[in-house]
Amino acid sequence: MAKQKAKTRKDDLRTGAPFWVRTPHSTVAVQATLTRDRFDVIVVGAGISGALVAEALTRAGKSVLILDRRPPVRGSTPASTAMIQHEIDVPLTRLRKQIGAEPADRAWRRSVRAVADLVDLAAKLKLDCQMAPKPALYLAGDEMGARALAAEAQAREDAGIRAEYLKRAELRERYGMDRTAAIRSEASASANPAQLTAGLLRAAMARGAQIVSPVEITDMAELPCGVALATRRGEVLVAQHAVFCTGYEYLPQMNTPSHHVTSTWALASEPLPGLPEWMGDTIVWEASDPYLYFRTDDAGRVIAGGEDEEAADTNADPKKLKAKAKVIARKLRALTGVDIGKPACIWSAPFSVTDDGLPIIDRVPGFERIFAVMGFGGNGITFSVIGAQIIAAAIAGKPDPDAEIFRYR
Ligand SMILES: Cc1cc2nc3c(=O)[nH]c(=O)nc-3n(C[C@H](O)[C@H](O)[C@H](O)COP(=O)(O)OP(=O)(O)OC[C@H]3O[C@@H](n4cnc5c(N)ncnc54)[C@H](O)[C@@H]3O)c2cc1C
After folding, report:
1. Whole-structure pTM over 0.85, yes or no?
2. Parent domain of 46
3. Ligand 1: which atom is nearest the Cα of residue 251?
4. Which site among 45, 60, 269, 274 is 20 to 30 Å from 303 CA-CA?
């Protein structure tokens, strides 16, 4: 038992759990065993995606069982810096070239709507999760200079998404940062991801959802009128539908070459007095590779991240964690003049990307009643909202008009 506890703590440290999970209201009581055996939908994974899917399905009147091999909110969700961005990792100008202008514009507009929907949902459910709408500032960097950013701002405006192009002088005057240009846009937000997820899970439970943990799903099959999921301890669970919201760990049946697991790093400072006023209500990221991004929380901590690497396992290297945290802090100081001192918490975690920056929200290939919500980048939480909307619509038999954009590929 002591061994089990030590292992969980180490796992938590690597995923940043000590930072978000030690905030109040960020845990959820679970059952160790099932008290009934018939459910409309089994949701595998109790992170932000599973929580949003369970909330949407219970709102639609479905009976839902949520399973996780960890306690709820202990996967990648508590590692998130939770900048809830309407901006997709792949700029609109580039996405248009990759998938065509019409679907690219729709993906971007859907992302804007998803942030607004999440802010509304958190308010409706009265979730105590530091949800705060914020503008986003996208800085020119080594991947996009001033000219490319001007074209990007124009493309967004053409697609009906407000985007204010700031030249160097204006950026310096309003934000004190020296870059050749930036795009400022409304429509993003930030939150405490653990409190948000726990609140959504509690809302689903209040409508009858059950959460059972630890349960690991090891295989799946489709029956003539339902699905069967096998657990590591030998049970078989049946339901009408199943939704896999398993983050960066997924069954081999869900593997696809367009999806890669990578590594990323983040830190949170101690509360800092005297931060520039704009930092309190702005989320910032840059068009660079590797990139830097940052925001603040209610207590005045700076939460920053980036320095992503292609490899799936380098996030497990403790030496790299310290080195990456130093680089993030140094870049932040160079850009903003803010010295965060010794961080309160540093962490690393797996992350995932797809070739076009869009998530996969679809039936698992070869299955009619089993869905997957996966492949999230820097705006993973926004994509989880879209995932919940598309999956709830599919299970209700009313396909979402944007579902095609997020199909398996
Ligand atoms: C450092 C970092 C910073 C980030 N910053 C941001 C950001 O600023 N903004 C943003 O929008 N996104 C950000 N993201 C991305 C975002 O956090 C993710 O997209 C999101 O947390 C994914 O949530 P999820 O619920 O899909 O997965 P998870 O939270 O990983 O949940 C999946 C769950 O499934 C469980 N599971 C897996 N396999 C099984 C199985 N076989 N059986 C049972 N249970 C299983 C796991 O135990 C886990 O609890 C960041 C990610 C990282 C790592």
Report:
1. yes
2. 2-79+194-257+357-406
3. 41
4. 45
